[in-house]
Write a structure and sequence with these properties.
Layout: H1 3-29, H2 33-56, H3 63-89, H4 96-128, H5 134-160, H6 166-191, E1 195-197, E2 201-205, H7 206-227, H8 236-263, H9 279-299
Antiparallel strand pairs: 1-2
Helix pairs in contact: 1-2, 2-3, 2-5, 3-4, 3-5, 4-5, 5-8, 5-9, 6-7, 6-8, 6-9, 7-8, 8-9
Length: 300
């Protein structure tokens, strides 16, 4: 990465930080900020779905394949969003029981819709493979990563916006995942060493991965007591274990996206964020970390 490209990345990051600052300011001054967070998160996951579908159809102009893939990704996102919206519209107060109801509805809706997406994927795969069995593998390698990362991850990321203290939960998750990205970049540039997965992402190193874990854990442990409060244990060990798990999920999310891009010989998922590429290039790790974080909150 050149110095000029790094400058562009930093400028884009500053703009995104300013947008987040405005959102958090609104969350402290209005009663409807949770819906704003909800809509922004939904919009981001919809953009990621579109970018993913474009990557998977970059080598062929197959509209049917693209929109079927897009529908499989969108089904969990829209299912969870609709069920949570209906629930919110039918209750008058945000009691502890209602927040618990949100959690139950979100997880049930997500699991059922993701299962439906997998079923559609398998049926379509079998259909296209009726004359050539290799076509089934091609469908699966496009559809399955997307359903897991965007369908499942995006749905539970949306669900977090309906929890009590949602803004601080999201802020802590963002800090852990993005500190992993920054620490991994600087540690990898400094120490280099063996490649992590050269066939998938040639620039990623084992030292960068370890540096990302260390950076994520330090940030997670430091900010955990301030932001998670009663939502999760303030024990240093618990916070360190959760942060480590989320960082690993985030790194796997990056590798999953890189794998799909490598399959289709695509450098970036888009160009919406100068210096970063597409929105999916920026929040790939966040999407795969969200389900683990949501489950941890449920268990707590």
């Amino acid at each position: 990465m050149t110095f000029q490209n790094l400058q562009v990345r930093v400028k884009t990051a500053l703009v995104l930080s300013a947008v987040l600052f405005v959102l958090y300011l609104l969350s402290l001054t209005t009663n409807y900020a949770s819906w704003l967070f909800f809509l922004v998160t939904l919009f981001c996951t919809l953009v990621c779905s579109w970018e993913y579908s474009l990557v998977c159809t970059s080598e062929k102009n197959d509209g049917i394949y693209r929109y079927l893939l897009l529908s499989v990704l969108l089904f969990p996102l829209l299912s969870v969003s609709t069920s949570l919206t209906i629930t919110a519209a039918t209750v008058a107060t945000q009691t502890e029981q209602i927040v618990g109801l949100y959690k139950d509805i979100a997880i049930i809706s997500t699991l059922c819709s993701v299962a439906g997406s997998f079923l559609v994927t398998f049926i379509y795969g079998v259909y296209v493979a009726r004359d050539d069995l290799s076509e089934l593998g091609k469908v699966m390698q496009d559809f399955i990563p997307g359903v897991f990362q965007i369908g499942l991850g995006g749905s539970l990321l949306i669900a977090i916006t309906m929890l009590s203290g949602y803004q601080w939960l999201l802020l802590w998750l963002l800090l852990v995942v993005f500190s992993n990205d920054s620490a991994a970049y600087f540690a990898g540039s400094k120490f280099q060493g063996p490649k992590l997965a050269p066939a998938i992402s040639p620039n990623k190193t084992l030292s960068g991965s370890v540096g990302g874990v260390v950076g994520g854990v330090i940030v997670g442990v430091f900010f955990g007591p301030l932001l998670l409060k009663q939502q999760f244990s303030n024990s240093i060990l618990d916070l360190a274990l959760l942060s480590t798990s989320l960082v690993i999920c985030g790194q796997l999310g990056d590798l999953v996206k890189s794998y799909v891009k490598r399959l289709h010989a695509v450098k970036d998922t888009g160009s919406i964020l100068p210096g970063h590429g597409g929105l999916l290039d920026r929040i790939d790790g966040l999407l795969l970390a969200a389900p683990f974080f949501y489950i941890a909150l449920l268990l707590n």
